[in-house]
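seq as requested:
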Amino acid sequence: MLERELVVSNKLGLHARATAKLVQILAPFRCNVTIAAKGREVNAKSIMGVMLLAAAQGTPVTVRIHGEDEVAAMEAVAGLFERRFDEES
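struct tokens:
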């Protein structure tokens, strides 16, 4: 199992478009992925689950990944966070 703490750095936080990108990037992976913030942990492949976190800019989140392709999945998630969900240039 891999675990990594990331910070939501895009201006709008984990809103609908950013959440959709996260779910889309994780869809091809077979591993289980959860994301935790503010005392809640949800399935990161669920748009509704991630939106319920209401993670605004600056919110630290913990991503936990377990499964056969966990390393590649973590790289994809971390890259998306680092690119601020491709929303800012």
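The chain has a mean pLDDT of 96.
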